Amino acid sequence: MARGNLGYSEARTDELAAWAMNLLGIANIERRAPLDLERSWRKRVAVASVVAMDTPHVVLDEPTGGQDEPGVAALGRAVEDLRRKGKLVLLITHDIEFAVSHADRVIALYDGRILLDGDPESVFWQFEQLAQTYVTPPVAAQIAKRLGLDRVISVSELVERV
Asked: How many other C-beta atoms lie within 10 A of the C-beta of residue 109?
């Protein structure tokens, strides 16, 4: 972020930038030009730049796109840390497993309207309505349904119930 755009002092800007880079696991690439980075690293740099603004609301559009497992894990830790700090984090994603792990509310849209709105368990258990949105329910929910288990959406819960 350009120094001063948000009214932060140079010291505060440096502090926020360091915090965001550590949070996203990119402190080791601090001196590299973003355009020289692979797509997944550029996306994490972009997320860190938004996080460093320290706003009360953070909107992340498809943050896990193109990420490897460590990148997805870093993004998940970042979302959880932001939530613990009392920030509203809005995720726009098709990554259902990420939503299962990190969302406390899910809104599924269809034809420009809200089709489903609720906690992840209640939304992701609506198989027929989700099919209208071309969203596939979580794998754990699909397996649980075949096993006759009700309202299971995470792998850890599926393992526990089985």
From this structure: 13
User: What is the Cα–Cα distance from 153 to 157, expressed in whole angstroms?
Assistant: 7
Give me the pLDDT at residue 116, please: 96
Fill in the amino acid letter for 125: W
Higher-confidence residue of 40 and 95: namely 95
Domain, as residue range, for 136: 94-162
pTM of the model: 0.85
**Number of domains making up the chain:** 2
Contact 49, 20 (CB under 8 A): yes
> Which amino acid does the sequence have at 6?
L
Q: Specify whether 108 is located in the same domain as 31.
A: no
Q: If pLDDT is split at 50, 70 and 90, which confidence band does 56 have? A: very high
Boundary (domain end) residue, out of 24, 58, 86:
86
3-state SS class at 123: helix
Tokens of 135: 């969203």
Count CA atoms closer than 13 A to 48's CA, side-chain side.
Answer: 26
Residue found by looking up tokens 């969203």 in the block: 135
Q: Quick one: which H or E segment has residue 107?
A: strand 106-110
The pLDDT tens digits for 118-132 are: 999 999 999 999 999
